[in-house]
Amino acid sequence: MTRPALPGQPGQPGQPLRLLIDGAWQAAASGALLDVTDPCTGDVIAQAAAGDAADIDAAVDAARRAFERGPWPAMKPAQRARLLWRLAELIDQHADELAALETLNTGKPLKMARMFDVALSAECLRYHAGWCTKLSGETRATSLPGEWHTYTLREPLGVAGLIVPWNVPLPMAVGKIAPALAAGCTAVLKPAELTPLTAVRLGELIVEAGFPPGVVNIVTGLGTTAGQALVDHPGVDKLSFTGSTAVGQRILASAAGNLKRLSLELGGKSPVFIFPDADLERATDAAARGIFANAGQVCAAGSRLFVHESVFERVVQGVADRARRLRVAPGHLPESEMGPLISQRQRERVLAYVAGGIAEGADVLTGGAALPGAGYFMQPTVMARTRADMALVREEIFGPVLSTFAFGDEEELDTLAARGNDTAYGLSASVWTRDLSRAHRMARRLKAGNIRVNAAVAPDFAMPFGGMKLSGWGRENGREGVESFTELKSVAIDLNP
Ligand code: NAD
Fold this sequence. Notes:
Distance between the termini: 72 Å
Bound molecules: nicotinamide-adenine-dinucleotide
Strand order of the largest sheet: 13-14-15-12-11-17-18
Number of helices: 16
Mean pLDDT: 96
Strand content: 15-25%
Low-confidence stretches: none
Structural class: alpha/beta
CATH architecture of the largest domain: 3-Layer(aba) Sandwich
Radius of gyration: 23 Å
Largest sheet: 7 strands, mixed
CATH class of the largest domain: Alpha Beta
Shape: globular
């Protein structure tokens, strides 16, 4: 892979990435910069503007103007749909370049960036383009005395603040921009400080697609400055956040000021159940992919594996064998199947959970260590003799570390589901069995927003995605996701004035 040109600096190689505010590229008001690092080497590969409250102010003002005046509010839904579709086409046209940038910034395998991050981003825009022309209110049957025409109007909420994490930077940014724009909102996006490259390139494509100035503004910067300023801003009507539960809880408190609408997509500690009647090869493959894909840095990663005792050895050894065979290497190398963790800090955090688990009596079946040399690589890890009270099992690790548990025939589904539900999170769960009744009964008992049966968690834009308990508030995707960027107004007209 040849190193891709960096975005945000047309004609000015070596210049820092800039902020997109009101359709123009600019430096942070303070002039401050953030280093952007390649996690495969630890080298600084770019610098990005470190926006703060002043830049967020300017971006929110631009988004407000674009929402209230100018071409955007006058645009028909079908015109908005065409713009979103056009952006999808531009993403397709620049797919190789976007994938290379995503790989450069995250270290993930290039083929995964191409097949997953980039392809899904284009698909997400197409899906949401379809909603532009389908959002509407409805007439209601009233029981008021007299003759009435009563109906609801579904209207865009206004200015949307969008804050995203670093694990799948492009799909995260697009996944928030697409429904916000489909609903008719304008937006201020704050990408994760570690991964601004594809977000800034997306901004260039948004300008090229012909979105009016101020409809999408992009402010790179730290969470504690730019992110916090967006959360606190009284000019933001809706805040959609994806990230850690700890930051989500802080956001909840700070958003109280103007009671801005909130969507929170937070952490997970998702269980996978494998019953002996399942297709064990497929289930074992999916269990391995479910925890090692993207080096485990996936909110819905299946990090707790429950296997029936009669097939426990076979399945768990199967996952461990796949872990040993997985080629861990920089994402731009063709052989790479798993890249590094995003930062030194993240790798230390993950390794500390493994060490803590060992200290509490768990065994390492395979992996458990950092890889020597440059970058933040670690071995895919399978743990045995894990117990429900260990921090390793209770807390979200966000790394390639699997805890394993056996269950027996004597366990009722209620008890087994309760073991799966024994977590503060409730994002996703999967069940592998060919017994239909057992599959349905487990799906009802599991407290998670997304259940898959005989399948790994795969995004589908028609299906609402989101969590229960500490995994968040609200749903993205589907009608529910796009409607979360709208407000409902009820109108009652007395027809005999
Ligand atoms: P994080 O919470 O540290 O950061 C997420 C974003 O919030 C970043 O852009 C960051 O700059 C910003 N931020 C940080 N502090 C802020 C503050 N005080 N105010 C406003 N913004 C602030 O999370 P992370 O480490 O980047 O990402 C990993 C986490 O994201 C994991 O917990 C993972 O489960 C979660 N995640 C959830 C989903 C989901 O859909 N549920 C998807 C992906 C990741």
